[in-house]
Amino acid sequence: MATTITDSQKPFSLDPYHVSEVFGFILPAPLTELPPYYQPWMDIALHVTELIYSHTLRSHILKMPLLNTRFLESHRELRLAHLALSVMTMGYVWQEGENDTVKMLPRNLAIPYWKVSQSLGLPPILTHADAVLANWKKRDPHGPFDMENLELLVTLPGGDSVRGFFMVTLLVELAAVPAIKSIPLVINGVQCGDAETVTSALEEISQAMEGMTDALKLMHAYVKPEVFYGIIRIYLSGWKDNSSMPAGLVYEGIQAEPMEYSGGSAAQSSLLHCFDELLGVKHEENCGAFLTRMRNYMPSSHKHLIQDISLQPSLRGFVQQEASELLTAAFQLCVTKLMALRSYHINVVSRFITVPAARARQLRSQGNSSQEETVSRAPTALEETGTGGSGIMSFLKTVRDRTRDVSLPLDNRAMQKSTNGAQPQNTQYTTHQTHLQSNTF
């Protein structure tokens, strides 16, 4: 029988975690300009790509004044500053590729970067929270939130493909919003013993997971594999577990010893961490340690949300206890859709990393670097790893397999009822997109 939540057991809410009802983990309405005092940063950040191609970014940054961060007053100002300083840092380190990296980030960049990072609880390196969540604007403020109407605030080498990579990833985040909003319904339903509410919320989550997979499929239309592998990837790479920078990077004016930070990774998105904690997915020691470390690359409030979800009563245990066919089917459908999303991610990684890497090795072995120059000049240090430093294919397959472990035995009829009763995902995704079109920022 369902019960009510007592005063000492307050309903779970997203409010304390700075999660938007409309945008989820995406930063709503990112700023496009900083206060005039910080124009020297923006003058360089907005032209990083051209300066890299002209081999002059490092010299421009060395001439940049050392600015005080105390005039950055709002969260959005700090996020734009972190994005701008992050893009400058990645360009400074990788301007000449993997064979001519630097050992030290100059103090006029390192000191403000460190202080802004400390204020946000983010590391001083380009993260998913920067490049994706806080790096967008609408071309037409009154137009839809879609690929044709979205633009990057700052960019890196890679042309249309780098825009496509970040924007498609942004749309995956957007597709997850209905699932994020349903998480409190699941948690509160479990606390109250309300199986009907939990079933409905789980069906919403599984539909959103399918929408995430559909959004991820856009990667094939907007990103060229040879450009991603040969040009973009190095600028997402960090100085931890990277043989090109085995000693890490010294942040001048912060400490004399070099520091190591992982590059941008899909594992830095809070989405799958939330789903894993909700469904009770447990990862093996090495994979689990990497995923836990990636939480330090998220905004602190989002990291706290994941931690707090993990402290709630077991959803899987509740489903087993209730022994409801429809509830079990809804839970299992979430597991199935999460596995499908992870399997499709493996497919994407294969096309954009594994296949180009094999081609690059073949060209090098033949002494032929001109036939497919873009692929050939990819960094060799990243052939077997992700930009976050993990052994990417084995990692992704292990994570997917651990997802399967939480599956519950299910009557085929119950799964059929759950599937038939679910709203078609395309309608769900379109409804959310239509709602966003009516919002101006």
Summarize the structure.
The protein has 441 residues and is mainly α. The protein contains 20 helices and 4 strands.
Describe this structure in words.
The protein has a single domain, classed as Methane Monooxygenase Hydroxylase, Chain G, domain 1 (Up-down Bundle), CATH 1.20.58. The chain has 20 helices and four strands. It has helices spanning 39-45, 48-53, 57-62, 75-94, 107-120, 128-133, 159-175, 177-192, 195-216, 219-222, 225-232, 270-279, 285-294, 300-310, 315-322, 325-365, 373-376, 392-404, 412-421, 425-437; strands spanning 104-105, 137-138, 150-151, 250-251. A two-stranded parallel ribbon has the order 1-4. The longest helix is centred in the last third of the chain and has 41 residues, at 325-365. It is globular and about 65 Å long. Mean pLDDT is 89; it is low at 421-441.
Biggest sheet record: 2 strands, parallel
Helical run tally: 20
Question: Strand percentage, roughly?
Answer: under 5%
Total individual domains:
1
Please give the order of strands in the largest beta sheet: 1-4
State mean pLDDT (0 to 100 scale): 89
InterPro entries: Indolamine_dOase, Trp/Indoleamine_2_3_dOase-like
GO cellular component, one term: cytoplasm
Pfam families: IDO (PF01231)
Protein name: Indoleamine 2,3-dioxygenase 2-like isoform X1
